[in-house]
Amino acid sequence: MNAPQKTASKTATKPAGKKAPVKSARRRSREAALQGLYQWLLTGEDIGAIVALGREQEGYAKLDLKHYEALLGGCVHEAADLDVILARHVDRKTTELSPIEHAILMIGAYELKHCLDIPYKVAINEAVELAKSFGGTDGHKYVNGVLDKAAVDLRPLELAAKR
């Protein structure tokens, strides 16, 4: 009679399973900006139409809207400048990159260049996490390497202070 009670108590105390970590509004903003930028890279569609479509997506209210709009609009408007920055650190033309890795690298470079309130390591890590979720098998390693090199150009004072 004791055995069933032990089994029942073991089952009762077992954790129900791992829950996915709650995503921050900033992380959600990066994901939404990635989707919009990917669409723009593939179609060249008007950014206003892409933003309008994004507003209709589930979870839009959970975004850091200011950051989302800055990332998506900034990456599109500065695409040529961001590609010049990235071109110094990639092994092929940016137009030959996977569109998802290209978009992730653009977001990472944009944050490194303009979002000085975000530490460079955080900007790189967030891009790596996007690549792990949405990119190819080892795309996150490529993203990490490229942005780590780009950080030297874009955040020299911050890197010097860390050393």
The low-confidence parts are 1-12
Which descriptor suits the 3D outline? globular
Query: In total, how many beta strands?
Result: 0
Return the average pLDDT rounded to an integer. 89
Element-level helix/strand string: HHHHHHHHH
Q: What is the tally of helical segments?
A: 9
Helix content: over 70%
Tell me the Rg in angstroms.
20 Å
Instruction: Assess the beta-strand content as a share of residues.
Output: under 5%
In terms of structural class, how would the helical and strand content be classed? mainly alpha
**End-to-end separation:** 65 Å
| Main pleated sheet | none
How would the blueprint of this fold be written?
Blueprint: H1 2-13, H2 25-43, H3 47-55, H4 65-77, H5 79-87, H6 99-114, H7 120-134, H8 139-154, H9 156-162
Provide an overview of this structure:
71% of the residues lie in helices and 0% in strands. The protein has nine helices and no strands. The chain is globular and about 45 Å long. The longest helix is centred in the first third of the chain and has 19 residues, at 25-43.
Overview in brief:
The chain is mainly alpha-helical and 163 residues long. It has helices spanning 2-13, 25-43, 47-55, 65-77, 79-87, 99-114, 120-134, 139-154, 156-162.
Quick tags:
9 helices; single chain; 163 residues
